[in-house]
C-alpha cells in the first residue's frame, strides 16, 4: 500500500496524472505482473535467489555463497520504506578552514560557533514534523562535535560519534594548504587533479577508501529513520553521492558549502533534496581543478 501511495505522487510514469487514476493503473499493472511472473519455490534448490516478503518481514535466501552476494543480502535486509529524512551538514567553519589548511583537528571559529548555535533553528526551519525523533551523528573530530553540541543540548536527541565519519585522511599533507601541497608535492598534486576519486594521499586515503569505510554507515543509515549527520567535506560528498547517484568522477568535485543544511528525503524513485543556508558568513573551501587557490571568503551573500 505504501508503494502504491508513493507511485501516485512520485513515479515518473504517472507524472501529471490524477492520483486515483494512477493508483488504479498501478494495481492493474501488478495484476499483469502476477499473470506473467513465475514464483520460485522450494523445488528450485539450485537457483541463487533472495525473497523479501512484505518489505523484509520475512527474508528467504538460497545458494548465497560469495562475498558480494552476502553483502547484498545484508544490504537489502536493512532497507525499509518508512518515510524519513536525512540531514547533512558540514561542521561550522574551523580555525584550519580560516587559514586554508586541510585535515587536522582544530576548533571551530567564532563564525563556526555561530553556526553551531544556529543549527537547531535551521533544522526546525527545514521542516521537522512534531514529535519526530532524530539521531545526531558526528565524527570523532572536535569540529563536528562542537558543531552538534547546541543541537544535542536543545533537543535532547541521542548523539553518536563515528570514527568512520572522520575526514579523508590526507596523510603527509595533513596540516598543509593546497598551495603548500602544490609546491612540496607537485606530482602528487597533479595526480590528484587527474583522478581525484582514486588518488590516495601518501600515508593517507583516497575517496575510494572513504567510500569503503563508509559501508557500515550506509548500512546503518538504511536501517535508521531520521538522522542528522554533521561531518566533513569529503565524507559528506560521498554520502550525498550515494543518495543522489552522483558519478564517481564528479563526486569529489562537488560544492558543499559550509553553514548550509542539506535535507535529503529518499523516495521510491529517487531522493528529494532541499538546502537551507544559515545567514552566517564562512570561507569557501572548494578548490577548482587545476588551481591551488587559498580558501576564499564567500561574497557577503553566502553562495549555495
Ligand atoms: O578544507 C577542508 C577539508 O575538509 C580538508 O580537511 C580536506 O582535506 C578537504 O576538505 C577535502 O576536500 P578536497 O578533497 O576537495 O581536497
From TrEMBL:
Catalytic activity, EC: 3.1.3.46
Highest taxon, organism lineage: Eukaryota
UniProt: substrate binding residues: 90-97, 143
Example GO molecular function: 6-phosphofructo-2-kinase activity
Residue positions of the active site: 91, 167
GO biological process: one example: fructose metabolic process
Sorted UniProt keywords: ATP-binding, Hydrolase, Kinase, Nucleotide-binding, Transferase
Residues of the 6-phosphofructo-2-kinase domain: 2-83
Classification via InterPro entries: 6Pfruct_kin, 6Phosfructo_kin, His_Pase_superF_clade-1, His_PPase_superfam, P-loop_NTPase, PG/BPGM_mutase_AS
Family statement: In the C-terminal section; belongs to the phosphoglycerate mutase family.
Entry protein name: fructose-2,6-bisphosphate 2-phosphatase
